[in-house]
Amino acid sequence: MNHLIFQQGISLAFPILIIYIINKLFRKSFKSIDKEIINILMLIYTTALSYFIWFQPVAVLDQQPYNFTLFSTIVFYYNHIKMDYLSLNNIIINLLGNLLITTPIGIWFSYKGFSKKLALPLALVIPVLFELGQFILHQLNYATRIVDIDDWLLNSLGILLAYWLAQSIKTKHN
């Protein structure tokens, strides 16, 4: 199922890529090939991520599920591991997935030379936009996804850890 979701998200990127390339040709603003490849990969990732968190078809529920209690989902999973109620595999996929899904953003911030002063607030705001988008799409009766502060936390940490790691690698090689 997740493979199909990713494949559909990638297929949505192609029209966007065509527009990007036409725009670059029209404006004659191609950068070096490696920079363009990085930008194109980020465009594909962003499109696939948007589809994954916002536009994949899911049921619309009467009420919006939400969690505004920090660490509530994480504690819930921990307690269910102890009781052997939920599959450890599902828990790891959910928690680690929320952390890893945003790592390309942190790497891209480093690649683009964002300062720590810019990367930190962006790492905090971008996942808020993910959750806000999920809330808005529910209000529009398009899809119901859980708005969860723990998702925000893990997504933010994913961006920041990837940024820090990429900056560390960059510093070592310079």
Automatic annotation (TrEMBL):
It comes from the Bacteria. Pfam families: VanZ. Residues 43-167 form the VanZ-like domain. The keyword Cytoplasm does not apply. The chain crosses the membrane at residues 6-26, 38-55, 91-111, 118-137, 149-166. Keywords: Membrane, Transmembrane, Transmembrane helix. This is VanZ-like domain-containing protein. It comes from Amphibacillus xylanus (strain ATCC 51415 / DSM 6626 / JCM 7361 / LMG 17667 / NBRC 15112 / Ep01). The lineage of its organism: Bacteria, Bacillati, Bacillota, Bacilli, Bacillales.
